[in-house]
Amino acid sequence: MRRAAELETDPDYVGRLGRFIAGVDEAGRGPLAGEVYAAAVILPAEYELPGLNDSKKLNEARREQLFELIQAQAVSYAIVGIAALEIDRINIFQATLQAMKKAVTMLATQPDFVYVDGTHCPSWSYASQALVQGDSQLDCIAAASILAKVARDRVMVQLDQQYPGYGFAQHKGYPTKAHMAALQLLGPCPEHRRSYAPVAQCLTK
Fold first, then answer.
1. What is the pTM assigned to this prediction?
2. What are the sequence ranges of the domains in the chain?
3. CATH number of 4-163
């Protein structure tokens, strides 16, 4: 895991333009229900985040611990969710880019450079670079992945109480066997993404 503060002298990374380097990542592109989340994080040059890594490589307890530590130590951070209705309206790719863009613009300290996990950067004026598997390479992206993942998971636990029977607290909206069986039995709830094929198929029955 590389620290953003180290990249100034690394020729393999582009465009160090100033002190504040933000990392951006998303959570929730694949689920059939709930919001898609994005987070942006600017970390200080020195921090104590034991075990910082891509959120997918961490267990829930470690993510929860790091979630609090990142917020306490970050120079700035922001977390944004885009609702299922908006995902259906503009598609998940555009909704993800929109969430990423909003997260960066909401940072109290605006970045000099932004690294985005994946293959595309949003349309914006920031100097930026997309970094494939960046959440496994760069500290600020890994931190963003944790904030987005934990924030989304917490909301899905709340939705489990609001819409019982679907198992949102367990599968977080992903298309598991249990979720698909509940969807067939109960039909979609207001938080389901109707543009996704498994949900659309239930609507036609």
1. 0.93
2. 4-163
3. 3.30.420.10
